Amino acid sequence: MYGSGRIISALLVFVGLVTFPIWYNAGKAQQPPVLQMPAAEHPECVRDVLYMRTSHMVLLNEWRDDILRKSGPRFGVTTGGVRYERSLQKGCMSCHRDKQNFCAQCHVYTAVDPNCWDCHLEPTSEEALLSWTNEEVILNEEVILK
Amino acid sequence: MRVLQAFIAVVALILVALVLAQVPGGQVLLGIVLPYLAIIVFLGGFIYRVVSWAKSPVPFRITTTCGQANSLPFIRQNKLDCPSTKAGAVGRVLLEVLLFRSLFRNTQASVHDGPKLAYGSSKWLWLFALLFHYSLLVIILRHMRLFTDPIVGFVLPLKFIDGFLEIGATTIYLSGFILLAAVSFLFLRRLVKPYLRYISLPADYFPLLLLFAIGLSGILMRHVFRVDVVAIKELSVGLTTFTPAISDEIGVVFFVHIFLVCVLLVYFPFSKLMHAGGVFMSPTRNMANNSRMVRHKNPWNDPKIKPRSYAAYEDEFREVMIGADLPVDQELAVAEPEEAAQASTEQAKT
Fold first, then answer.
1. Which residue on chain A is closest to B44 by alpha carbon?
2. Cα separation, B283 vs B261, whole angstroms
3. How far is B157 from chain A (nearest CA, A)?
4. pLDDT of residue A142
5. What is the pLDDT of residue B167?
6. Low-confidence ranges of chain B (pLDDT < 50)
7. What are the respective helix, strand and coil percentages of chain B, to the nearest 5?
């Protein structure tokens, strides 16, 4: 073999790059998402689990477009007959209250950076969420903008 | 016909993946066994090919001279297109690897009225090849979000730039669509131009169609048949930590995607795709053109055979050459009469 010094070292670099995830992950604690599920009084989500896992963002965009651009209904009914508000803050987050332990778990795990929170607010505490009215939400947003 | 063979092969591969993903045990085969096999074959085959190239002796400088060679001091040398130093040769290889210099130099011949033959610059191949390769690089780097946990640092800025347009609920990545467009161009180029179709083989069409299918399945997986990314990342990180487990809720399109990638990895070392390694190994590009400055000796010459100059050859055969009316550099020495007589008596003695 000619030029073996250069070629073998180049091949080692190449193998190192291709197998990069193996030695990068080695010895590091895995951080698989651990979701905090809603309390027992909310047994049913607006759609089935698999749909929510793969396509909740599409659903949120549909709600947004339907309500804001087509004046669609603000409320929907699940297959189990539960009435819900088609809203991220007042719908989804009335059950999934903890953004850090629900939304962010999978988003951080898979490097997804949704732009929901550019405008929307996460509930600061359960009491605050329950007592919020629309006006307060708007006020709160103004405070943050300042 | 040759394009049909490649097309049928890719469709068959997709069907195989679709069927295997539904069969019991098939998902383990597609998601765990094949990826390990594929990466072993890819790395083993890659090293085998490079080592076999490295075993080929290249004793002499066989560089392509694409510009003015090093010459007299008042003639300006083209230092990157005809390098005479090691640094120049490294520069030329880098220019080729990073910017595809040789494709940039591509020309197209055309016949005009007269008839006149004209050569014009043709940059389309260069442009789309560059777009394709850099998109592929971005896509591979971006996939590290699924293989590293915690996510390696360069992924987030890369994703931000790639998803800059923020279109759709699952943001579209520019690189994916640029890759599909570039592969389509490279494929149609072979199909539309008669002289390219004439020289194209199934081995030319197949990788393009395979890459198109991989890109398309990836885009479909992200935007149309959305899959559970968390389940997939648990599998892919599991593969890298040698603790793989498959959740049964991963969509079928994922298995098509990963099967086609495995096929690409296995196919890679034994096909024209090895230009990835070969571009560094090409003696026509990575050698300095210094034949006029340095004497390159053939390393397996028999050391017992000494080099022999023409002067020595002529010294031995001068008389015979003159006798056969061959031109000689040095005429026979006109000997003094006494010496000549002496010489003739000595010859007579012996």
1. A15
2. 31
3. 11
4. 57
5. 87
6. none
7. 60, 5, 35
> How far is Cα B197 from Cα B204, in angstroms, rounded to an integer?
10
Helices (H), B55-173: 86-99, 101-104, 124-142, 144-147, 155-162
Q: Is the dihedral of CA B339, B345, B349, B350 positive or negative?
A: positive
**CA–CA separation, A87 vs A95, rounded Å?**
12
What are the residues whose beta carbons fall under 8 Å from the beta carbon of B139, sequence distance 6 or more? B173, B175, B176, B179, B215, B218
Question: Which chain B residues touch A32 with a CB distance below 8 Å?
Answer: 149, 230, 234
The residue among A6, A8, A11 with the most chain B CBs within 10 A of its CB, best to mutate, is A11
Q: At what angle are helices B252-267 and B34-54 packed, to 10 degrees? A: 20
Domains in chain B, CATH or no CATH each: 2-286 (1.20.950.20), 312-349 (no CATH)
Helix (H, G, I), strand (E, B) or coil at B120: strand
Count Cβ–Cβ pairs < 8 Å, chain A vs chain B.
Answer: 95
Tokens linked to B315: 């010294």
- Strands B107-112, A83-85: pairing is unpaired
Neighbouring CB atoms inside 10 A of B330's CB total 9
- B117 sits in which H/E element: strand B116-121
Q: Where are the beta strands (DSSP E) in B223-338?
A: none
Compute the distance between CA of residue B77 and CA of residue B71 in angstroms, rounded to an integer: 7
Alpha carbon of B339 to those of A105, B334, B336, B350: distances in Å? 107, 10, 5, 16
> pLDDT by residue (tens digit) across A13-47?
999 999 999 999 988 878 888 888 887 677 788 88
Collapse the DSSP code of B66 into the 3-class scheme (helix H, G, I; strand E, B; otherwise coil) and give the result. coil
Residue partners of A40: CB distance under 8 A and separation at least 6:
none
